[in-house]
């Protein structure tokens, strides 16, 4: 569709007699963007951009309709695309003002800020659908078919008044809703609840997360533009005592879809606008994974809002929270039921290879399932039948036995080896990792199962300590204590900057001894100062070094978050001045002592150099930070679809910042030194700075400052320093961490939840954490 839109735009522009430069002046859209759209190099134009172009071209209603139809897939022809796409096109028409023109009124388009949340909601819907469709395929939910997850209405003690659930007026007769159903009907079940609030209860491994995933995909397929976009949030990571629900939803939305950090109407982010305007339907997965003391305040916070939502939890944890406060207001709870032997008979035999040529239907599970149907002497169900009553254990049994021909599931019937349910479950959990890592994957490296057990145990313990299910690559270093993290950051930064400074100083001066001395001074000083900045910015405040939600746009007109430029000017100036003052004071003292000057003269010279370098570095850092803020433009909503893509996007942004920061900061330092020396000449005595010294200072400062900023104040820098160097060096993680995490995802050990990984099964994470503590 991008090529069609470009052809239509070019024709309409030429019909209007405008050049690309003239259209830029009229519309405010950069000429590079217009050129990219017309040539097809830029795809999926934003509705705000289409609106600006349509207004600048002064199009008639039919021409506006044609331009919109070319921009929005599924708009033309009526039957093209899904229902959601067609409805999205209808919403887009209203944004361009076609409806007003058809009603006989002037085609007056609403402001772009009004259209932004609507457009963002449609982009978010497409991104969510694509993400969870891939995740469903990765989890093999449809292979060979989804396990029959069923549910019934939960007990009345966990249910609010049906009048509240059905939104009935006072005095109206009310009765319960029929909430029983199956996996394929979860969207219809939710839509039958007038309050729009659903609680899904089920014991560990009963399929709550799969149900949430299926709900999102089914709801999006039949969603209309008037309905909110369902988005899965891992509520186990929420601390309701520290942040409100809406603020937390905004933070999570920005993390998983960085493009929503772009400014929206009212000088708030698009994420905040989407949440506040009710365009997001929170699917809160894992209420039971919250810390014990946080479930009650979480339920109270949820009851303080009227947001439609879906909440999943284990029954005992939810019932305990209800006992302490109240049920979730206006929420209809359902409870997942166990799988039956008939379900196992239909599913497990279809997951094994056909090995008996005389009986193609025979498989490894037939004899086991037949044995489970035989009544026991005391009429109690067999332990294996009880274990295989949840989708989690069926999935583990399939991996360990169906997908591994050399394993015989008949051993699971051995009551001497596995006397009870606990032993069977631990056997399946403990054999899951060795099984999946014994298989070779095409194009993937082999991993030692024992080391894998240790590495994954470290990650499981890391999540348990942080009390979150989210395995975020930018927080892997948080497994270290704050003081250790800061010390490692300062030491490595000092080493890197010292080596770079020493090598460059030796190259400029031609003296190896001088270069070593300069590196020995600058390296520790820079490490100390950057370490202090990291300590006060992140360790003391408890904040994370978050991935960047922006990119730099050097060419064209960036859709910049200009509000960041002013604060960055102040922060950069203060930080640079502090560094320059300390650096100048130390350098002045060393020079004075090398001349055998008296203490008073040394202090005076140190103070003079401190003032000069404080002004130079303060002005250079403030200017560089300000320019970075002006050139930043938000990422697209669909730009981050996995942890790996977020890591790559952050790396590109940081490297671009480094390439920009080094020459700009270096030039500002080199040129600023001469300016400051001229301005202060005579006021602080006789100041001397030759051009060669300014050039050397600017070059070294530019590269050293960029490296220090990258290592201490960016998520990718901390990833390289802690996760790629320190944790592998201490044996807690492999050297190829990103490849290991992606391989674990491909093998089904981890799952992707937006920008983070999670353990595929909470039981597996708990088992690995226990093993780490025992080790």
Overall description:
Strand 5, helix 14 (295-303) and strand 6 form a beta-alpha-beta unit. The chain is α/β, with parallel strands linked by helices and 775 residues long.
Summed up:
By secondary structure, the protein is an alpha/beta fold. It contains 30 helices and 11 strands.
Rg, rounded, reads 31 Å
Strand content: 5-15%
Mean pLDDT reading: 82
Helix content: 55-70%
Distance between the termini: 57 Å
Number of strands: 11
Biggest sheet overview:
7 strands, mixed
Q: Strand order within the widest sheet?
A: 2-1-7-3-6-5-4
Overall form? globular
* Class inferred from helices and paired strands: alpha/beta
Low confidence ranges = 73-114
Total number of helical segments?
A: 30
List keywords for this structure.
775 residues
Explain the layout of strands and helices.
Layout: H1 2-15, H2 20-27, H3 31-39, H4 47-57, H5 61-71, H6 83-96, H7 98-102, H8 112-138, E1 150-153, H9 162-165, E2 181-182, H10 186-191, E3 197-201, H11 208-221, E4 229-234, H12 245-256, H13 270-276, E5 280-285, H14 295-303, E6 309-313, H15 315-324, E7 332-336, H16 341-347, H17 366-372, H18 383-387, H19 391-402, H20 421-438, H21 449-466, H22 482-509, H23 512-539, E8 550-552, H24 565-594, H25 599-631, E9 632-634, H26 643-680, H27 691-713, H28 715-729, H29 737-746, E10 750-753, E11 756-759, H30 762-774
Parallel strand pairs: 3-6, 3-7, 4-5, 5-6
Antiparallel strand pairs: 1-2, 1-7, 8-9, 10-11
Helix pairs in contact: 1-3, 1-5, 4-8, 5-6, 6-8, 8-11, 12-13, 19-20, 20-21, 21-30, 22-23, 22-27, 22-28, 23-24, 23-27, 24-25, 25-26, 26-27, 27-28
């Amino acid at each position: 569709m991008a090529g069609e839109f470009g052809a239509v735009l070019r024709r309409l522009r030429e019909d209007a007699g405008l050049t690309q430069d003239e259209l830029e002046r009229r519309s405010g859209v950069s000429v590079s963007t217009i050129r990219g759209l017309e040539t097809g190099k830029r795809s999926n134009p934003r509705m705000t951009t289409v609106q600006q172009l349509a207004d600048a071209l002064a199009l008639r209603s039919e021409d506006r309709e044609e331009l919109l139809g070319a921009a929005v897939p599924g708009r033309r022809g009526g039957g093209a695309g899904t229902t959601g796409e067609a409805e999205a096109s209808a919403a887009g028409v209203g944004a361009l003002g076609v409806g007003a023109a058809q009603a006989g009124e002037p085609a007056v388009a609403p402001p772009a800020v009004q259209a932004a949340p609507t457009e963002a909601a449609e982009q978010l819907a497409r991104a969510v659908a694509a993400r969870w469709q891939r995740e469903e395929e990765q989890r093999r939910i449809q292979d060979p078919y989804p396990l029959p997850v069923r549910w019934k209405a939960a007990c009345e003690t966990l249910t609010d008044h049906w009048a509240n659930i059905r939104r009935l007026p006072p005095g109206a007769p009310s009765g319960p809703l029929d909430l029983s159903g199956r996996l394929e009907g979860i969207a219809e079940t939710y839509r039958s609840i007038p309050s729009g609030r659903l609680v899904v209860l089920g014991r560990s491994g009963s399929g709550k997360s799969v149900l949430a995933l299926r709900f999102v995909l089914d709801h999006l397929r039949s969603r209309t533009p008037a309905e909110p976009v369902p988005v899965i949030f891992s509520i186990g990571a929420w601390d309701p005592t520290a942040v409100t629900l809406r603020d937390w939803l905004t933070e999570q939305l920005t993390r998983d879809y960085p493009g929503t950090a772009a400014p929206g109407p009212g000088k708030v982010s698009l994420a905040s606008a989407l949440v506040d305007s009710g365009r997001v339907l929170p699917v809160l997965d894992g209420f039971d994974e919250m810390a014990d003391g946080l479930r009650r305040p979480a339920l109270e916070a949820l009851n303080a809002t009227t947001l439609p939502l879906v909440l999943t939890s284990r029954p005992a944890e939810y019932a305990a929270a209800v006992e302490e406060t109240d049920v979730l207001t206006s929420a209809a709870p359902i409870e997942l039921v166990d799988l039956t032997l008939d379900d196992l008979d239909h599913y497990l035999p279809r997951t094994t290879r056909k090995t008996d040529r005389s009986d193609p239907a025979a498989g490894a599970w037939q004899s086991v399932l037949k044995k489970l149907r035989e009544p026991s002497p005391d009429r109690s169900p067999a332990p294996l039948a009880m274990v295989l009553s949840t989708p989690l254990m069926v999935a583990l049994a399939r991996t360990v036995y169906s997908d591994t021909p050399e394993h015989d599931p008949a051993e699971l019937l051995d009551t001497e080896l596995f006397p009870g349910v606990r032993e069977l479950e631990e056997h399946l959990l403990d054999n899951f990792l060795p099984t999946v890592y014994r298989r070779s994957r095409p194009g993937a490296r082999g991993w030692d199962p024992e080391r894998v057990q240790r590495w994954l145990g470290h990650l499981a313990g890391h999540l348990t300590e942080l009390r979150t299910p989210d395995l975020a690559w930018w927080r892997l270093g948080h497994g270290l204590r704050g003081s250790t993290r800061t010390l490692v950051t300062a030491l490595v930064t000092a080493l890197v900057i010292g080596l770079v400074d020493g090598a460059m100083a030796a190259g400029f001066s031609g003296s190896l001894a001088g270069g070593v001395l300069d590196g020995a001074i600058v390296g520790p000083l820079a490490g100390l100062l950057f370490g202090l900045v990291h300590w006060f910015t992140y360790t003391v405040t408890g904040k994370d070094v978050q991935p960047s939600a922006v990119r730099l746009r050097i060419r064209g007109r960036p859709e910049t978050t200009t509000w960041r430029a002013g604060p960055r000017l102040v922060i950069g100036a203060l930080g640079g001045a502090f560094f320059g003052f300390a650096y100048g004071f130390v350098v002045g003292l060393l020079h004075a002592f090398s001349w055998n000057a008296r203490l008073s003269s040394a202090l005076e010279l140190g103070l003079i150099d401190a003032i000069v370098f404080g002004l130079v570095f303060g002005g250079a850092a403030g200017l560089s930070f300000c320019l970075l803020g002006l050139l930043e433009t938000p990422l697209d909503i669909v730009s981050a679809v996995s942890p790996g893509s977020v890591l790559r996007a952050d790396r590109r942004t940081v490297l671009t910042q480094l390439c920009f920061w080094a020459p700009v900061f270096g030039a500002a330092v080199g040129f600023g030194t001469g300016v400051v020396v001229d301005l202060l000449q005579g006021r602080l005595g006789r100041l001397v700075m030759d051009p060669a010294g300014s050039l050397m200072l600017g070059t070294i400062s530019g590269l050293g400052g960029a490296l220090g900023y990258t290592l201490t104040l960016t998520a990718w820098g901390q990833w390289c320093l802690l996760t790629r160097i320190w944790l592998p060096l201490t044996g807690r993680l492999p050297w190829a961490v990103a490849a290991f995490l992606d391989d674990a995802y491909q093998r089904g050990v981890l799952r992707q939840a937006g920008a983070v990984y999670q353990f595929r099964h909470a039981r597996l994470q708990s088992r690995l954490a226990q093993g780490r503590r025992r080790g």
